[in-house]
Input
Amino acid sequence: MTSPLRAIELSKTFPRVDALHSLSLEVPEGAVFALVGPNGAGKTTAIKTFLNLHKPTSGNAEVLGVDSRSLGATQLAQIGYVSENQKLPGWMTVGDFLAYCKEFYPTWSADDLAALIRLYELPLDRKLKHLSRGMRVKAQLASSLAYRPKLIVLDEPFSGLDVLVREQLVESVLDRTPEATVFLASHDLAEIESFASHIAYLNEGRLAFAEESAALTARFREVQVTLDSPAELPAHLPATWLNPEVSGVVIGFTDSQFGAGSQAEIRSRFPAAREISARVMPLRSIVLALEKSAKPGKGAR
Output
């Protein structure tokens, strides 16, 4: 199996809302694949459709080699799922909750669970409803990692948690790779950038890109061209130069396909340039540049 999760022209429509538009992506085995985008972009809808919590309007999704609409006990026993909106039986103690979950998973490991309980410092005798948000997420993760799932699906699990708790939880999830594949939805771009092997960006239900993190950061540059005197933007700039702007003697733009010949191309467009700089962009800046270029009249690249 090379792709634990695949979407093929997947669409989901609710009354008055088109939540997903022909989403196509493939998650490689062993990857930490992050689906990012603003709140309301369709990330949760995508996950719920993958897991057969929503039926697709058109297209299809495959999870662990099976059509998502045909997921059964065999596949679900190999999937770990944690969501920020997941409801827990608050009347249960942590210990009772974990014991209850154990019965559903043939591969449940008592040793793994014991290690997770120690790592997370879970209070087994405390009721779930009395836990902090961070501790509830720890309980959910412990119940989802103890059986070593092949696919770990996380929907905004770390939202609102303090930095130390997030780092602890991320490390415990990453410890499961490459034996497991992680599919993570989040709007926290700075957090995701530090550990995701692949990034996909979803906005208003449409996929802007999906690629390896290293390839993404390698092809985007924030370019500034300094001239000797003020000038207007040349006509017919390359379509891959996003959001060109002029400020005095400086012309700036985002090059979304920066490569070996880019400096020569820039120099040919601006032969009077006194200085050319091309800076590597963090994920947040890349996403902002794409969002800006996709505004009406700009055109998405």
In short: The longest helix spans residues 133-145.
